[in-house]
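Session log. Operator J.P. requested a structure for one protein chain; no other inputs attached. Running the standard single-chain path with token output.
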Amino acid sequence: METLFDSTSSGIIATPFEPWWETPDFRDDLTEVVTSSASAVDKITALARLLQLTGCSPQIDQWERLLQLAAIDIGVARMLEPHVDALGILAEAGHETPDPDSAWGVYAADLPTHRVNVVDAGAENLLTGTKAWCSLAAELTDAIVIASGSDGNRAYAVNLRHPRVRPQTGAWPSLGLREIPSGSVVFDRAPATSVGPPNWYLDRPSFAWGGIRVAACWFGGALGLARRAAQTHLNRAGRSPMGEMQLGQLDAEIFAVRTMLAQTAAAADGDEKFSREHAWRLALRVRNNIYRSAQRIQLLSRELAGPAVLTSDAAFAKADADLTVYLSQHHGPRDEAALGENICAESDVDEV
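Structure written below.
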């Protein structure tokens, strides 16, 4: 069997007709990093180098490698994905290449009670306020932070280890993604470097591809559960018709997502220049479909593997809990409504 990541000619997306239920051979150095007790920074920087993910890699490579990583360990993929996102944002904005030993997050969530504003202090930008949902802020070195100013929202590069940046390290009782605490960060006139012009962060088409990259990780996590469940079933002495049905349902669901991602990657990496609206419409379609599919794959995997795995198989139980928390980040009905609004807006323009 070909070793994963030694070639870009095969993969879950690139070759959607190949069996998904066989666990690929992973390079020893990759497995060593994923299973190590290294710090988040060391894991992120090592994996970015091993997987050759710079943020400027073709979308199919980013989605493929992150989903395969999520199939091994959802938490590690969740750790790496924002770093890849940040590298892409910095490169697209023409920002200087960051230190290869730095590990980045992207903090864009806005809550009415948690907002960060930029204070213009002459030649220096200073951030003030509290940002919610800042994953691994106490461990990472840097982050892209979205802050509000008089000219709109803007992305800023911030050194998370500056004394005026204070991650709030309270309790994180989550059972899923336990290794990815996501608390608040207080910025007290923290120096920051602008990344791109005002409102650029959300307006660029590549924002949509980043949304699909996260969904690819959801799918990878679900795929890992499905592989474990399928192997449990295939190794049974007596296979029940109900199990055969569930395996068939898994296969159909997984094939649909693989082919959808293959077509979407071809579009994202192709010559067509997408507007922000068209790219985001495609992302909403893909994210909504993968969200539903990942939920169904998770349920079918539990049923096919049987109830014992949730109490006797630590890897399955952790992956199941991790995926549940990761999927909760989807905006659900709001994203479905946004897709409908996007279609109506184009229809209204066409009728003018």
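Operator note: Residues 222 and 298 are 6 Å apart (CA to CA).
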